[in-house]
Amino acid sequence: MFSWAKNAVGLTEPVYGSSAVQSVSSQLPPTSPQWTALQKPSLAWEVMSGTNVETKTFYMTSSTGKLGLVQVIYSDVLGIRTTAQFNCKIIDAATATPELWCSDNLDNVKFSADKQGFSATGVSMEISEDGSSYRIKGNVNKSCIVDITFKRSTEGFVAGKDGITSFGTDPAKPWGRMYHKFWPRCEVSGSFITQKGEVDFGGKGAFIHCLQGMKPHFAAARWNFATFHSPSYSAILMEFTTPPSYGESVIAVGGIASASEVLIAGPQPAVVHNTTAPDSDNEWPEPKNTTFTWKGLDKDGKEVKGTLGGDIGKRMDRVDVMGEMPKFVKNIVAGVANTKPYIYQYCPKMTLKLEVDGQVTEEEGQLFMEATFIS
């Protein structure tokens, strides 16, 4: 049984090298904008067979100083078992304190015929007919009843032509792929109702649809993520580093939007952890000072650069991913893959430095960031 599981889930892979990763950064010529507008059909759930993880995640920055997260995770393990999870989180940004975390397995999962809609017992996620807004409702956990609407303020985007980084020694026949689809700036309305009362999440937000279309611990060993909102701008960035089997390749994608349009988007420079300290519990190099950078050409061909950097303050939370997995998945990963995934979360105030064609603008806003270590 163990040998079967080891072969099916995968403990190690051969060393293919970085040439077995076809990065999204190579899809468009460097002299053009590096992104493609996201249309509604591209937001359909894929519902792949075989081992994969697909998520839709909604990040909220309320005008009252609360940060929030709503997420649906749909996963297939070995092609024989599917699971779905509904996650909610509330954070007090002023004190960098998590106030509520709910993570619930879902039953009776269904997708609409066009794969745009998702439902389960106690949960629904629906996109509007024109593809400009989502409404997420959940009462699967009475500790947190959710009714939130996200309406995008700008176009959505993918990096390159289709957002896909593929894996495989034959680019024409990849055996895995990764993508992220973004709404970088949204108007959020609605609330969470908790046992302590109602929490209004009116404010700004960002949405990401992600697919890890292969064994997740083979696709990425580390992740960095940032979403930032200020009165005039929003910035978002997702970076992953492949395991040594794929040459520890670094792929970063994201963009910056104003209140009404995407300024730049596409592949981005790597995230830098300027200073770190080992976590005394597991020795992962926990970041203490970071720099996120965005670069690109706007629609007029002007060079744009954005920077967020500095001390990130105290850790808001550390999530033991193994502790949140469904039992079936946890038993396989813990016993076979030998991974130790942790997510480190922070929510400092920071100032975005935006340089457009040599002219510099600075604006303070709220950052939510994660550093994830898997293997």
From TrEMBL:
Sorted UniProt keywords: Cytoplasm
GO cellular component: cytoplasm
Name of this chain's protein: Survival factor 1
UniProt-listed PANTHER family: CERAMIDE-BINDING PROTEIN SVF1-RELATED (PTHR47107:SF1), SVF1-LIKE PROTEIN YDR222W-RELATED (PTHR47107)
Any one Gene Ontology BP term: response to oxidative stress
Record domain Svf1-like C-terminal: where: 214-375
Subcellular location: Cytoplasm
Family: Belongs to the SVF1 family.
Keyword Phosphoprotein: no
Domain named Svf1-like N-terminal: residues: 53-212
